[in-house]
Amino acid sequence: LLRASAGFTSRGNSVLPVGDPGLPLPLAIGEVERWYAARGLPARFTVIDGLPEAEALAEALVGRGYLPHSPTVALVAEPAWWPPDQAAEPPVTAEPAPSPAWLGAFAAYRPVVADAALTVLTGSAQQWFLRTTEGKRITGIGRVSLDQGWAGVHAMWVDPQQRRQGLGTALLRSASRIARDADAVGTYLLVEVDNRPACELYASCGFTVHHGYHY
Predict the structure, then answer these.
(1) Which pLDDT tens digit goes with each residue over 122-178?
(2) Minimal CA–CA distance to 122: which of 160, 141, 96?
(3) Taking the model in full, what pTM does it have?
(4) Which of 123, 184, 199, 214 is the most buried (most CB within 10 A)?
(5) Backbone Cα Rg of the chain
(6) Cα–Cα distance measured from residue 215 to residue 206, given in angstroms and rounded to the nearest whole number
(7) 3-state DSSP assignment of residue 75
């Protein structure tokens, strides 16, 4: 599955190899490289850990000079993974579209390709954009996508000066309420293995590893 979004996000600009490509592996890799070169993008492969075909692909890529990077885990949780919101936690606002202030906070912590980012952020069947505030200033954001019965949690960020104050927990609890209200079969999120504080937070909230992958 060839994916391109003008360079915005690694996942949105990488090939997802699932099953037989219909060509010998070296030729399939060459087709991928040409497809991305035609779009002015580097060829990037999402390699799912533990799949036999993925291991063969990774070996072939390393032989061509590729370097593995950005190990990531996909985490999942049951639908009712948290009880209702607690009154003592910071309030969370959930809106069906990203406000200019939300987009500004999103762009403050990661590179953004404006048109591509908005297309990706609003591309699910339904989505909610979460934020915590202090006065008029946004202190934390998150996004929940609802599609094919699953709730995805994305774009989690808390202002570095506001961390360890429960904002991340409040955002996740709001996401859990949205998932329950939508009768989602489960919730998922993706996090890089090196992001230890985030991994610890998600584990404390009941998320478990479904699978890992790297680029």
Answers:
(1) 988 899 999 999 888 899 999 999 999 999 999 999 988 878 888 999 999 999 999
(2) 96
(3) 0.88
(4) 184
(5) 19
(6) 26
(7) strand
